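In response to the reviewer comment on reproducibility (Comment 2.3), we provide here a single inverse folding case reported in full, input and output, so that an independent group could reproduce the run without further information from us. The structure tokens appear first.
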């Protein structure tokens, strides 16, 4: 009201023009900063891992009600374990089994809440005093989305498998679904999760060898080893010959 008494016929457009041309006004302007989310980058296998729980309470398998989904952030290699409950003690016990095989990560990340992960880390430290872990961000739009998609994929696959086979024993099938997931080609890293983790493709026994079924079904162990060596050498010779011809 005071401005109206002092000035007249000054439109909003004129005021905006004045502010745009005023040097002092421009200097006082504080630029608005948008929210910048830094992507979480992992440069080493097992430097950062994620753990999450898949709720299977609506499709229980005996005492089993949950699935622990453990994923390496860099390679996306996945390990699944059936759980009877989602208590800190049971989750920590299953994680310890994984850590004793693959080693423990530097950072453990979960979307189940910071307090939950702190308790898991404390429980793990009590079991293995020399192990030191820190808690990652409880939720991150890029990193956590991967394990969440994985959770839904596994649940959908298991529910479909139970429906097709008229069974509830998903805990027995879990290890095979894990193997299939890790064998599959990943669209982002352009290789299988198993190969990203171990540097070689996953093999299912002699079925992935150069030998035919007739060869390994009709020979003894020692003969089989000799045939396998010959078959591998022949396979390499064939590849080298094809490359030379090209």
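Designed residues, in position order:
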């Amino acid at each position: 009201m005071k401005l109206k008494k002092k000035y007249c016929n000054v439109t909003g457009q004129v005021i905006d023009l004045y502010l745009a041309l005023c040097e002092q006004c421009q200097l006082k302007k504080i630029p608005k900063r948008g929210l910048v989310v830094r992507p979480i980058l992992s440069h080493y296998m097992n430097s950062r891992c994620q753990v999450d729980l898949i709720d299977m309470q609506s499709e229980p398998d005996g005492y089993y009600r949950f699935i622990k989904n453990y994923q390496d952030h860099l390679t996306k290699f996945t390990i699944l374990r059936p759980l009877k409950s989602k208590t800190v003690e049971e989750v920590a016990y299953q994680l310890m089994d994984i850590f004793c095989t693959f080693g423990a990560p530097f950072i453990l990340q979960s979307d189940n809440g910071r307090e939950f992960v702190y308790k898991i880390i404390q429980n793990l430290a009590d079991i293995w005093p020399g192990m030191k872990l820190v808690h990652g961000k409880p939720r991150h739009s890029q990193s956590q989305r991967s394990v969440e998609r994985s959770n839904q994929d596994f649940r959908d696959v298991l529910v479909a498998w139970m429906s097709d086979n008229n069974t509830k024993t998903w805990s027995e099938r879990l290890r095979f679904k894990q193997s299939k997931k890790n064998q599959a080609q990943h669209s982002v890293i352009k290789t299988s999760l198993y190969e990203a983790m171990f540097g070689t493709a996953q093999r299912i026994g002699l079925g992935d060898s150069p030998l035919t079924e007739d060869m390994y079904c009709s020979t003894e162990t020692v003969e089989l080893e000799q045939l396998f060596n010959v078959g591998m050498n022949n396979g390499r010779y064939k590849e080298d010959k094809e490359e030379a011809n090209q």
